[in-house]
What we know:
binds arginine; 13 strands; Gyrase A, domain 2; Isoleucyl-tRNA Synthetase, Domain 1; alpha/beta; ATP-binding
Amino acid sequence: MKTKLAFLISKALNESLSVEEIESLLEIPKYAHLGDISFPCFTLAKKLKKSPQLIAKEIAEKIQGDFIQEVRAEQAYVNVFFHQLQVANNVIEKVLLEKHHFGTKEKNGQKVVLDFSSPNIAKPFSMGHLRSTVIGNALANISEKLGYEAIRINHLGDWGTQFGKLIVAYQLWGNLQAIEQNPIEELLKIYVKFHEEAEKEESLNDKAREAFKALEDGNEEAHALWKWFRDASLKEFEDIYQMLGVSFNSYHGEAFYNDKMGSVVEELINKGLLEESDGAMVVQLEEMPPCLMMKKDGATLYATRDLAAAMYRYNLYEPAKIFYVVGHEQSLHFKQLFAVLKKMGYQWSENLMHVPFGMMLKDGKKMSTRKGKVVLLADVLAETMQAARKNIEEKNPQLKNKEKVANEVGIGAVIFNDLKNERMNDIEFSIEKMVTFEGETGPYVQYTNARIQTLLNKGKFSFTESHLNYLDGEAWEVIKLIETFPHVIETAFVQANPSTIAKFSLQLARSFNKYYANTKFLTNDELQRERLKVAYAVSILLQESLRLLGIKAPKEM
Ligand code: ARG
C-alpha cells in the first residue's frame, strides 16, 4: 500500500520526488482519526519554496484511487484514509489463495552463500556460535523465500596450532573411551591440562609445534588423530544442529583450504601485494592495519584460509552475495579480508558482507559455555526444554505429544529470544523469561497460533472462498499489518536482520489478540466465517514467520 500511495503522490508532484523518497517519508499516524498513512510536506516545502500547508492541499486534491476512501489536507500533512473493506479483501484474498507462499518470490536463479555457525573442533560450542547458527539459518530461509538458492556452509575451525597441542596432550594423558563418550568435554580437559603443564614444562610447547608440523606435512598418525578429533566433535555438534533443526550443504572448514593456499599466495606475489614485515608476509591496506598472510616459518593463518575460501566459493558458486555471520569481535578481520580481495582486483568483493552480532549475557555478564567447570550448550538447551515442559504441565496437562511440543517450545524460545533483538545488541539469556507464554517471547507467538487453530476448529472453519465481505472490531489494524509482510521480509534480507520478522510476528500476534479479546468471534452466522478468514490468514503468517526464523509451530500447546 505504501508503494502504491507513494506512486500516486509522486505523480501528483510531477515526480519532483521519487517514489522511494516519498515512501521513506510516509508515516503511520499515531491516531486512527488522522488516517491510515500520512505524508508530511516539510521536506518538500524547502525544495519547492512553498508553504507545506499549500503543498498538502495541492497533493490532497490530486490523488485518488479505488483503494482510497478519503484524502484530507490537515496542516502540513496529507492524511490518507484507505477504503478498508476493499483493501482488506485484496489482502485477505491473496493470503488465503497463496497461503504460505504469500510474500514468496519466484526463483531468480541466483545464489547466496551463508557462512555461519562454524564452531571450533575440540572446543565447546559457544553462545556466539549459537547466535551465528540461529541468525545464519534464518537468513538462509529468508534468502530462499526471496527466490535465491541458499548455500549453507559450516566453516569449521578445524586447523591451527592448537591441534599440535591436542595431539601431544592426547599422547600423554588421553583416554580413548572417555573421548568416544564425551568428545568435547574430554578433549577440552586435556587441552586445558596441556596449558597448565606447559607453564611448568616449556618443552611441551616445542613438542606441540613439532606435532603440528607433522600434521601439516601429512604424517599419518597425526592425521588420523586429527580426523578422529574432528569426527567426534562434529558428531556432538550434530546433536545441537538436530535440536535446532539446522543443516548445512558443506562442512568444508579451514583445513579444506590447506592445499589451496599456495596458489593464492602466489597470486598475491604476482600482483605485487605481498610485502615483508618483520620476517612475516603481509598485505598493506589503507586506513587499517596490514593483513598478516604468512608467519615467519611460512605457516599460513586464519586470514589466508579465509582468502582461499572466498575465492574457492566465488569460483564454485558465483553467488550474488556471501554473508559471514560472525561475532562483531571479528569485524576487523573481515574488513581486511574484503579489502585484500578488492586490492587483488576482484569486483565481487563488494558482494561480501560481514553480519556481526553482539554478546549473549547472563545476569549482565558475558555468558560463557566453559567458565569454571564445563557447561555445554546441549545442557543449556535441555534446561530450556525442561522449563517449557513445566509450563505446559501447568497450562495444559491433557496435551497430546507433550514431549514433542515441549521441545519445540523450549528450542523455539531460545531462537526467538535471540532473533527478536537487533542483532548488534547484547542479549539477555533468562530461561524463565523466554519460555513464558506471555510478553515478547516465541512461545507467545506459538501459543497465539495454536489458539487460532482451536478457534478455527470450534468454528468449523473450512476454506471454500477467499472473498472477504465484512470487517469488524480491530480487524482493520490486523489487516494493515498483514499487508506489510512481503515488505518486512525484504527488509530483513536487505539489512541481514531477521529481527524485523520476529518483531512483525509479535505485533501481529498482539494485534490479533486485541481484536479477539474485544470481539465475539463465534456468533453462528455468516459474519463468523468472515472473522475466521482473518484469523486463518493471521495463523498462516504466524506460522510462516516462525518457519523463516527456524521455529516450529505446534498446532496445540
Ligand atoms: N571458527 C571461527 C570462530 O569460532 C569462526 C569462523 C567464521 N567464518 C569464517 N569464514 N571466518 O571464531
